[in-house]
Amino acid sequence: MVTGKGGTGKTTVAAALALALAEEGRRTLLVEVEGRQGIARLFETEALPYEERVIAIGPGGGEVAALAVDAERALLDYLQMFYRLGGAGRALRRIGAIDFATTLAPGLRDVLLTGKVCEAVRRRNRKGGWVYDAVVMDAPPTGRIARFLGVNDEVAGLARVGPVHHQAQAVMRVLKSPETAVHLVTLLEEMPAQETADGVAELRAARLPVGAVVVNMVRPPVPGLTGGALAAADRGELAGVLAGAGLPAAGELAGPLLAQGARYAHRTGLERGLRAELDELGLPVRELPMLAGGVDLAGLYRLARRLREHPW
């Protein structure tokens, strides 16, 4: 599962991770649970249906299938699976009862979404093997990830017996298993880094498996320039160097360049401090570069290659 503060690029990281996992002959399922169709836009394809379909080929020929989980459809599946109420469930949907129920009880929506994903994790093919070698969930933001994943624990406690209880327990067995990990996406900025630290604390308190921290959109260093070199330069000296290089209005350029150098020094110092804070979380930290041209399909494959360079 991939979570992160809004704006950190968690959907992009989830998509790149799915591609990275789809190695030779391996099948990966990429799941969206927020209804934003962000995965479809990243892969430049039409809107994802409730049914799973292949949207990309991973490195070496593995496949990436995708699924947009819809709470209403998941509830219909649930009613049919445990109560054989397929026809009655469709009637409830026509009169709006299902949408009313999932809106009135948001925890129910989370139970349905996680249940559908865990069903895909446990699904086997006719030969008895797993249908998918890996499942990647583009999960809700960090601020509500612990609540989203822990709601089945609450449901299992409320419903002591019956299919609801057993389903909730089965989901939590998957979520808390050693094969599951919640990866947190952040930026080298104060608010995302703090929310990441808070999210790690909440996940650990809920005894949910925390994976790695992925620092996204890392700016490349300026070649040959240390953090304070330009900021500490003398304005007159810099103007002389610029004039010697044949640049017009060298005196006017020196001031803005020194100001930019000061901003660069401040930013690199801040990033060093944030990196140290992230290291203190005691988790693997992976960095992904900022893509100058924005994220397109080629950029996703580039990020996937970067993720494959370091074992998780």
UniProtKB/TrEMBL annotation:
Which Gene3D superfamilies did the record assign? P-loop containing nucleotide triphosphate hydrolases
Name of a matching Pfam family: ArsA_ATPase
Q: Where do the TM regions start and end?
A: none
> What InterPro entries does UniProt report for this protein, alphabetically?
ArsA/GET3_ATPase-like, ATPase_ArsA/GET3, P-loop_NTPase
Question: In this protein, which residues make up the domain named ArsA/GET3 Anion-transporting ATPase-like?
Answer: 1-153
Q: What is this protein called?
A: ArsA-related P-loop ATPase
Q: Which organism does this sequence originate in?
A: Streptomyces sodiiphilus
Provide the organism lineage as a comma list. Bacteria, Bacillati, Actinomycetota, Actinomycetes, Kitasatosporales
